């Protein structure tokens, strides 16, 4: 079935399910996928085709198996998976697209289609040909958490990395109700210190994406080099994925590069994504940052987060999501852990 989306209907009374098994078929699905993503009220930018198609082009390794759910010909659900065979020959796993570089993984399903989850699960059980389904970084309320366990299978659900989140007030003068007085004092102090160091300019890049991303690569690598490590952007395939994704994210209005310049030179970058306008409980997602380690005394990280929080409030965001990881700085801002979960499903023959 390589090279096409094949219509399957294991349950004659159920919805129409298509298997999308190669990149060209996935790319052809992009306009409908984007419309579905826009219509799912709690979908994050990480479920958008702008993010996941570049991920599969450059990072994915294995056999694509995305399930497209249709009702009357309309795309009403998408479960983007792939089968991965471990190099050591210890098993075949069914992963969601985006794993490892993506903080929230999930399917897309219109709320009216929740009853179709059982049929999708049965279809997967027949067609996935995997020793286990491994689905990490699922939020509470995730469609993949709600998918019924196929008959005879075993299930394990465990806590995954939490994502600290800061609830944002509607007005800047109310920030003190969410962020400690000490953190706000520290922010004022580091802003004064940075202004004394030279001509300071922090902006949200809107005109271009190449210069901020190139600076992020340089600064992120320099910071991690001080620890003797390469960082998450060291892999050329990951760099290629981001370069491919950024233009589409930018066109869709989902991308924010918060940039700090000192005397005209970029010295810190925060790479963030944001929910589209009009979405309820709109969030900004602080994905990745980099700064010149020689300027650590100026606290460029704090400067950028402060600027990004204020900018997010100005455009109507109500949550600043620091994404996975329990780094101390996130809690200085008053962020509180939001749980995510890892779900593992094993068929009867593999559980024996």
From TrEMBL:
A single MF term (Gene Ontology): transferase activity
Keyword Nucleotide-binding appears in the UniProt entry: no
Domain BioF2-like acetyltransferase span(s) in chain numbering: 182-330
Keyword entries, A-Z: Transferase
Protein name: GNAT family N-acetyltransferase
Organism this protein belongs to: Dankookia rubra
